[in-house]
Amino acid sequence: MTKKKIFEVPLYPYVRSPDQDAGKAVRHKVVVVGAGPIGLAAAIELAMQDVEVVVVDDNDKVSWGSRAVCYAKRPLEILDRIGCGDQFVDKGVQWNVGKVFFDERQVYQFDLLPEDGHKRPAFINLQQYYFEEYLVDRVKELQAQGKPIEIRGNNKVVSVDQGSDFATVELETPEGNYSVETDWVIACDGAASPIRAMMGMDFVGRIFEDNFLIADVVMEANFPTERWFWFDPPFNRGQSALLHKQPDNVWRIDLQLGWDVDKEEEKKPENVIPRLKAMLGEDVNFELEWVSIYTFQCRRMEQFRKGRVIFAGDSAHQVSPFGARGANSGLQDTDNLIWKLKLVMDGTAPMSLLDTYDEERVFAAEENILNSSRSTDFITPKSAISRVFRNAVLDLSEAAEFARPLVNSGRLSVPATYDGSSLNSDDCAGMPVRSRPGSPAADAPTANGWLLDQMGNKFQLLAINTDVPDTIDVGGVTISALRVNATDEIKDRYLGDKSSAVYLMRPDQHVAARWETYDGANVAQALNRAIGIFEQEAAQ
Fold first, then answer.
1. Of 53, 60, 78, 345, which has the most beta carbons under 10 Å away?
2. Listing from the earlier edge strand, what are the strands of the sheet with 203-218?
3. What is the pLDDT of residue 410?
């Protein structure tokens, strides 16, 4: 008997809920719509903070095919914080090096993590179905610990209605419809987001006139564990191609097709296989696992929150896949959102704090869209002169270092630094630019292990070569101390030309403020600003 593949086996099959027999709508704290990577990550972080959450999905299985495969260092650090990073990294294929080819020549090579002293690699490749399976495993772990989290498979959202302080969600199941009430809805229901359509909201941005074939093939091959990108290769002349290794001898191949194609015809095995043989060779044995065609889209919602409904991941923004900015930025959405939502739900922060989720993540989405659009324009030039320029850059990059930064085969995902955020406050001249307010914390080794392993889910004062109180209470928020002595990496990443430093770190490990030494009044003011309380500042 053939063993079923992971995406053929229900992971959270439909089970009748007591809510369906309650006689009236049962109230929940948070309903997350979508059991993909972003929805599950949001729900896990809520449950870890003892916020009751129900995840609903119209499916009961992981995603079909590998879909998103490249996960960057920052999202891996987020997964560490929610308790499951090791599983991803142990299974994933780790890589730092990318190579760019023009025709048959290698013209450029880059290293995405050229410095030592980080726990996680620049990237791993891992099929999305494993990603979702591991997050479901983490949900089950939390359930075993008694945390308030539940997944309801085959529960399709058919309507969302908002009141002043709650929303009503109607769900369709194999046994009929029922409704629940919830304080908050987090919509992680994908690029086609039914909830976005129900609310009459749409994307703004660009759809690029090109199509790409994705083929995941199972084969034994001795290609190195690197990202290989071709411009105008002999096996796909006039177009581009991409090759990535995944676990289990699965290889991701992307082939540019052009705009005017019959998508259904192009997906047929009898048309896909000759294209792959032209690339891999007639004598290479492989098996098709998954085939899809996608169109480049760089778009976002104008605002990521409307009342009690908050959008995250692909439901809020879309970018072309070259650059691995989709799932990676979605995880950073939830990373930004959940701590803010928890403070608002606890009554510790004003509702306006949620406006800064929109502020900061729209800023990040714009950055991703800009980089993704530039990559797309370079990969698929839209005029003869653009192609001449692109090809000249590729030719020059083989020998001329100055041309290499212009080569754009997909600017790969990096975390957003929230420059100009209303939550940022004091900075200290002379400290490294990379750790300025708004930036994500850089990992580094310390005497007690990796720095980022000692942070997470709370406000902290990172004290380097100086002392701070064990705890500080400001308006119902407790700030705890994390004291470290400066290693060479800490000096380089956090001190600059200073001999000591105090950093106020947000629960998402972004810097809120920094000083050379501790001052309680400065810390209190910065904390208030970081949770959206600005009255003290206005009164001064």
1. 53
2. 105-111, 97-102, 227-231, 240-246, 250-258, 203-218, 287-301, 317-318
3. 60
